[in-house]
Amino acid sequence: MDVGDIAGNPIAQLAFLILSAAGGYKVWRAQQPTEAKERADSEGQIAALATWQQLLEGERAARVKAEERADKFAAERNEALQQVWEMKGQLRAMNETLAAQTSELAQLRDQLRQLKEQIHAQ
Question: How far apart are CA 52 and CA 73, in angstroms?
Fold first, then answer.
């Protein structure tokens, strides 16, 4: 078929128009699923990002709670250590007092023994 045949023939022009429209429609339909796939892929990526963001926020919240528990534990540990050191100081002071009282008791026993010896000697 020659281009000159289409120009003067209305039926050929109509056939050419119909074939062109059919070809254009076919190309348009071939692109539609691709666009739908791209839209679905984009929506899926958005949904996946939202899910990842929720997971990340949950992990961050868990990390904050863990850090708070660790800080609380450290504070309690430091308080317990301080109490242990205070008790060690109190024990040291009690031991010194006990040693002084034991020494004083020994002196009093010596004096008592000497007095008994003086009484028995007379």
Answer: 31
